[in-house]
Specification:
By secondary structure, this protein is an alpha/beta fold. It has 11 helices and 16 strands. 46% of the residues are buried. Bound molecules: ligand FHN.
């Protein structure tokens, strides 16, 4: 605690954070990007790095207490011979996702991109020698998909990352005065500059790791991590680039989106969202397809395509985007299980996408039968269970009701603010049967 307080005082003295984004006023470009982001509603998260090789998830270094010098040797065998950025992007696009968020550098410290700030990167530090992010950026541009970069604040392998936080304590990093936090913060700024100048327009920078120093209070975090300096840098280099931070706290000034981990906004089943309220910023929930972020060779516990479709609808019903994760294999391919689920989601979205993209939270909160989204005067009922008949209270008079997939008219009776719908084909097997209600 004392050490970190000394650092905060030193940083403040250096004027770090002086360009504080307090009183931050987003530019018109930024506001337009927020709107686009909120309309996208569905993105795919990619956790990929050296950790794909041991196949035990992205925390393997911390969980197995692997020495950072030994872990770094994984770079010598990083050769994902089947990596094909175009194939990834096409599959993701066909799955209905509108953007990709990829780990540019995770807590293990390895950068998936060309970086002059460290040789520990995919181009200079591996026999593969290719710029993964560069290839992905090109494929995204060709396919018209937005690209976002995840960026870890935590680093389990850099010796300047000192004082250490609460994770990665068994990776052999020295815990002493040779650490140089200011040097580490400068390194982050160099890499952010690279990420925002080498790959064209970037939709968002998605930070993660502030929680590593959560022994310090929330108010101390911006100065510890130089958040305001980083946010100002990002907005200066690309005003339309959104800033999100998965710190599990209420948003700080300068952040453009609010992130929730493994929970829809307002819920806290996973235990990450206990201290954060739901802000008025565009919202995003990140979620795994199985239980893992990085490739885990033994994790077969994939959620079904139907569950994922319902989760997407539930997320949209809270006015949030779903960022659904895939952990590519060490050979560069996306697991078949993930591809199969994406394909199913894509088919459903092709027919029912109107009830997800560009919608807002529905005016009827979650019900035993499902959830609602809305767009203008159309309210979408997402029926998760077959409903032969449904009685609802509506905010206005109902003009028409149709099954979105089939276009079939749904008959209804209206009486003093309530309406009873008779669903012609209560589809027993559908993941989410959508009824579009047009109000007067
Ligand atoms: O520690 C990370 C974890 O590896 C993963 O990246 C998730 C994604 O939300 N975020 C962190 C935990 O909060």
């Amino acid at each position: 605690m004392k050490r970190i307080l000394v650092i905060i005082v030193a940083l403040l003295a250096l004027g770090v954070g002086a360009v504080a984004q307090e009183g931050y006023v987003p530019t018109p470009e930024n506001l337009a990007a927020r709107e686009r982001f909120a309309a996208d509603r569905f993105g795919v998260f990619i956790h990929w790095g050296l950790y794909a090789q041991p196949g035990r998830g992205e925390w393997v270094m911390q969980q197995q207490n692997i020495d950072y010098r030994e872990y770094a040797r994984l770079a010598n065998s990083f050769y994902p011979s089947k990596f094909d950025a175009r194939a990834w992007v096409r599959a993701i696009k066909a799955g209905g996702a509108r953007y990709i968020t990829i780990t540019s550098r995770h807590h293990d410290g390895f950068s998936l991109f060309r970086s002059a700030a460290t040789p520990y990167n995919a181009v200079d530090g591996t026999p593969f020698g290719r710029d993964i992010l560069g290839e992905l950026a090109e494929a995204c541009r060709e396919e018209g998909i937005r690209l976002h970069f995840y960026y870890s604040h935590v680093d389990w392998g850099r010796t300047d990352y000192w004082p250490r936080g609460r994770s990665g304590l068994g990776t052999g990093r020295p815990d002493g005065k040779e650490g140089d936090w200011q040097h580490y913060l400068d390194f982050i700024n160099r890499q952010l500059t690279e990420l925002l100048t080498q790959y064209g327009p970037i939709g968002a920078i998605w930070f993660d790791g502030v929680w590593d120093h959560d022994a310090e209070p929330r108010e101390a975090q911006p100065a510890i991590w130089n958040l305001y300096g980083q946010y100002a840098l990002i907005h200066r280099l690309q005003p339309g680039c959104l800033v999100g931070n998965n710190h599990h706290l209420d948003p700080f000034p300068g952040e453009d989106i609010q992130i929730f981990e493994k929970d829809v906004p307002g819920e806290n089943e996973a235990g990450f969202s206990g201290t954060a309220g739901v802000s008025r910023l565009p919202l995003e929930t990140c979620q795994t397809m199985n239980h893992s972020w990085g490739y885990n060779i033994t994790d077969r516990a994939y959620k079904s395509a139907d569950e994922l479709i319902r989760y997407l609808a539930r997320t949209a019903s809270k006015g949030a985007n779903l960022l659904l994760n895939i952990g590519p294999r060490p050979d560069g391919t996306l697991p078949e299980e993930a591809l199969a689920r994406l394909e199913e989601m894509g088919k459903w979205l092709q027919i029912n996408g109107e009830s997800i993209y560009g919608t807002q939270a529905g005016c009827i909160p979650e019900q035993p039968w499902g959830v609602t989204t809305q767009k203008g005067n159309v309210l979408y009922l997402h029926l998760f269970k077959p409903q032969p008949e449904l009685t609802l209270e509506l905010p206005g008079k109902l003009k028409s009701a149709v099954l979105l997939a089939e276009g079939t008219t749904v008959s209804f009776k209206q009486k003093k603010g309530t309406v009873t719908l008779t669903i012609p084909d209560p589809a027993a097997s559908t993941a989410d049967q959508v009824v579009a209600l047009t109000l007067r």
